[in-house]
TrEMBL record:
InterPro entries: Acyl_transf_3_dom
Gene Ontology CC annotations of this record: plasma membrane
Transmembrane feature ranges: 7-28, 48-67, 79-98, 118-138, 145-162, 174-192, 199-218, 230-250, 271-292, 298-319
Family of this protein: Belongs to the acyltransferase 3 family.
Protein name: Acyltransferase 3 domain-containing protein
Primary localization class, coarse: membrane
Localization, UniProt: Cell membrane
Tree of life domain: Bacteria
Record GO biological process: enterobacterial common antigen biosynthetic process
Acyltransferase domain residues: 3-315
Annotated membrane topology: Multi-pass membrane protein
Species this protein is from: Rufibacter tibetensis
The entry's keywords: Cell membrane, Membrane, Transmembrane, Transmembrane helix
Gene Ontology molecular function: O-acetyltransferase activity
Length: 329
């Protein structure tokens, strides 16, 4: 289905946009209001990248768990080797600024050699969890699945009241990932016409975007410092918005041809794009003077993100022609 390929592309590009605009958004109160609102608008529009990948995992993987051992082996071999390779790459990059001992390298890999790699660690744990619980979930009727989804989201929201327990942060993130996967599997069971998908999808997407924009501004204004809750996968608004994104893109259809083949080709590189994009942003584009500071945030972030995505995707497209490239992407 072309919609799933487009979702992967949009999800990967969204992550690149977010990381390109982070210096401005997190500079709330320190940068001009005009620039911050531009950045907040971009972030609010594209804040569903990670959620899309999690939701897609639920759509595509939960129904396929028939042989637990085979499923886990296949999923881990797909994710772990690229994760380890790029973790070492980010450790090597860090050594340019300060030396690292073997123990420190190990610690960085365990805790995340780069901030964006938290998602890969989360998805690995979710794959392990799905190996055991996926077959049970896949047998649930739609009404029971919806009930489980509602209860899971309520538990996630209730956990936000217990901020005094630091260990809950990681559990909460993992649980939020489970909720997104559950939502994806629920959508895979729904029969919704293309026209309704398109209408509902757009309404949910733009409703979520506006709510994220307004919520982030008001929350930050009240607290007197930047607050990113409405950006995170813990926010029910992001779940709502990501669901709308899924509905809209799955309403798109294309006939076989060059365009569809082109989309498939780009979609195959999206995991690689996710892994490498900070290196391209920092080690290539920033050194060329291309960043969010180009003209204004709207222009700078857009140009930087498009170039970063294009370079990353092309790199992995050509890399895919070589044997064993799957261990890097």
């Amino acid at each position: 289905m072309v919609g799933l390929h487009l979702l992967r592309i949009f999800g990967a590009f969204s992550v690149v946009v977010i990381h390109s605009s982070v210096p401005i958004t997190f500079g709330f109160g320190k940068v001009s209001d005009h620039f911050w609102f531009m950045s907040n608008a971009l972030e609010s529009f594209f804040r569903s990248g990670v959620g899309i990948f999690l939701l897609l995992s639920g759509v595509l993987l939960i129904p396929k768990i028939t042989n637990r051992g085979e499923f886990l082996k296949k999923r881990l071999m797909r994710v772990v080797p690229p994760f380890l390779f790029w973790s070492f790459a980010y450790c090597y990059q860090a050594r340019a600024h300060f030396p690292l001992t073997p123990i420190e390298i190990f610690q960085k890999i365990v805790h995340g050699a780069s901030t964006h790699l938290w998602f890969v660690q989360t998805i690995i744990l979710l794959y392990i969890g799905c190996t055991f619980f996926g077959p049970l979930i896949s047998k649930l009727e739609k009404r029971h699945l919806l009930f489980l989804l509602i209860i899971s989201e309520m538990l996630l929201l209730a956990s936000l009241y217990y901020e005094e327990y630091p260990w809950l942060n990681e559990v909460r993130t993992l649980w939020a990932g489970f909720v997104f996967m559950l939502m994806g599997f629920y959508f895979s069971k729904l029969k919704i016409g293309l026209r309704k998908r398109r209408i509902y999808g757009l309404m949910m997407f733009f409703g979520g975007t506006i709510s994220t924009f307004v919520g982030t501004y008001l929350y930050s204004k009240i607290e007197g410092s930047f607050q990113d809750y409405f950006y995170s996968i813990l926010s029910p608004i992001i779940l709502f918005k990501t669901s709308g994104t899924y509905l809209f893109f799955t309403s798109i259809s294309l006939k076989e041809g060059l365009l569809l083949n082109f989309i498939r080709g780009i979609a195959k590189t999206t995991f690689g794009v996710y892994l490498i994009h900070p290196l391209i942003l920092d080690a290539v584009l920033f050194k060329l003077g291309i960043s969010y500071q180009l003209v204004n945030p709207l222009v700078g972030v857009t140009v930087t993100s498009m170039l970063c995505f294009a370079i990353s995707s092309l790199f992995f497209y050509f890399l895919s022609k070589f044997r064993y490239s799957n261990y890097l992407m």
